[in-house]
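Lab notes, practical 5.
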Amino acid sequence: MIELDYTLRTVALGAAVLGLSSGSLGAFAVLRGQSLLGDAISHAALPGVALAFLLTASKAPLVLVVGAGLAGWVGTLCVSAIVERSRVPYDAALGIVLSVFFGLGMVLLTYIQAQPDASQAGLDTFLFGQAAALVGRDVVTMAVLGAVALVAMLVFWKEFKILLFDPDFAASQGFPVRALDVGLTTLLVVAIVIGLQTVGVVLMSALIVAPAAAARQWTDRLWGVVALAGLFGALSGAAGALLSSATARIPTGPTIVLVATAVVGVSLLLAPGRGLVAAWALGIRNRRVLRVAGTLEDLYTLALAHEDVHYPHPAATLQTMTARPEAVGPTLDRLQKQGLVEPRDDAWALTPRGLAEARRLARTRADEHDPAHLGVEVEGPTP
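Output from the prediction step:
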């Protein structure tokens, strides 16, 4: 039984706030095909943390978050500048900015740790996170900044939506596409930097990508993806905090990421529209429908060779007309239950209803191969 003491409540609440904001805003990055942007921003934020401490000698959460946010924002501008002013592709620009900023951050952290005083202790937790160190004012800071980002997202929902799906149309309608892109990226920066103390630079990108990737499996509507991503992120944060507290020496940040990964796995398997289980069931259903239609058409083809269209034919004859003879028996049983065929002296014949269905299938197939149906212009004879 997990005891919900003050520290655990604080950590769980902070992780839930982080998951809600990062999941909701991360949905835009995932849908725009910029999933790695979160990784670049989180790594680019590290030198900002170090510089904020060097300039202010303060480890106040708001000071460090502002430093991380400025550095992350500068990193995204560097990515955009590299892509726009050179032939370097987007993914390469992300890699360049990520490695350079992260290397600079490590150098600065090493320099800070080498100082003789002890005021720098704890800054290295921004690498891998230390959720257990969260206190009430940290959660308040995360909640306020996250709420500001989410409110801004809702205020500019229409603009961000059109930017997401058709930026060229947005530009043609007079929308400030560049400003909107920078604004959306800025909100993503806010969502990332407030989580650095909880899950760290290395793992923060997972909370941007995983909830959105899971939500995308369940719905095709933007508001649904954003809402579900926020819900999955909040649940992953709270559940990860509770699970890590149940066992000694299990870090909270990695546990949150593992829970979010499990949510993605469940979504990939069980989502009704896109899940692997649904696709497997749909494949079985489609193959069954095709076998039923194929067997019915085979019986109709055989019936056309006789004056009596209801003339029965043995199952062995039908087995020679298909690539899967072992499926003929179960398919005939299914057709019999539907009232389309009937057994006669160890053979099978079309019922009047089955004959009508077979003729409908034949007409449909003929229409599909008709050039006029396919939109192909057929030249007539030259007069």
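Observations recorded by the TA: The radius of gyration is 31 Å. The chain is about 75% helix and 0% strand.
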